[in-house]
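Hypothesis: this fold can be encoded by more than one sequence.
Test: take the structure tokens below, design a sequence, compare later.
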């Protein structure tokens, strides 16, 4: 069952995986929010863990930086380990005037300058969208926690250091809620292989204003994002049980 990038055994992953970019953040989530967490992947130090959250099996694993990296891990989790739900939890930059550092944003869709989804979609434009139910449950979980969120289009950039100074202003005019590097690829992989995906991000910096979070502020705010993602899974489970 092991792949070139994951050395877990069959059954090591739960059907739902939270995916931060940083493998150290994956370890933090496992140690902070999961009970009886055990490490299930160690390849390339891209740590993966499985434990329980309020009795529900949950896995968490890093996906690295950029669409190529997240696409590899998401594809293998779905096709080789039977994962059905993937929720990206990470940081993003802001460009809109009404989005500030520490805000939590939820990616209903994801624009991109990457060509990967056109490649997988026979050269045509693919509307990279999150699973609606997972997104709705994330919004509801945030409301229950008293955390305001903004929902809309993310922009998944191929370049972290973009040489085009006009890009940020263009994204602002189009109402992009957050700039990151993975969601469009994750949504494309999920669509191709029949899984469900969503993205919850914390704004760590404002690209146009120059504001940014300190390390201490990131810690406390990122906890809210992780709590939203975990609670959304329980809400999604409850809805599926009601519909069964």
């Amino acid at each position: 069952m092991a792949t070139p990038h994951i050395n877990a055994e069959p059954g090591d992953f739960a059907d739902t995986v939270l995916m931060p970019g940083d493998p150290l953040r994956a370890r933090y989530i496992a140690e902070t929010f999961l009970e009886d967490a055990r490490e299930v992947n160690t390849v390339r130090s891209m740590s993966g863990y499985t434990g329980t959250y309020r009795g529900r099996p949950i896995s968490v694993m890093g996906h690295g930086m950029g669409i190529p990296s997240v696409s590899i891990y998401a594809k293998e989790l779905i096709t080789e380990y039977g994962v059905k739900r993937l929720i990206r939890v990470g940081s993003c930059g802001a460009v809109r005037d009404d989005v500030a550092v520490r805000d939590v944003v939820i990616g209903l869709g994801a624009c991109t300058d990457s060509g990967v989804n056109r490649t997988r979609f026979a050269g045509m434009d693919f509307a990279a969208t999150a699973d609606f139910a997972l997104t709705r449950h994330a919004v509801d979980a945030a409301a229950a926690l008293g955390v305001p969120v903004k929902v809309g289009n993310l922009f998944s950039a191929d370049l972290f250091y973009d040489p085009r100074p006009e890009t940020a202003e263009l994204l602002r005019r189009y109402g992009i809620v957050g700039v990151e590097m993975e969601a469009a690829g994750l949504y494309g992989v999920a669509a191709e292989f029949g899984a469900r995906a969503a993205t919850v991000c914390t704004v760590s910096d404002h690209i146009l204003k120059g504001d940014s979070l300190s390390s201490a502020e990131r810690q406390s705010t990122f906890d809210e994002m992780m709590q939203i993602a975990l609670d959304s899974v329980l809400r999604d489970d409850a809805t599926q049980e009601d519909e069964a």
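Residues 34 and 221 are 18 Å apart (CA to CA). The first strand starts at residue 16 and ends at 19.
Hypothesis status: open.
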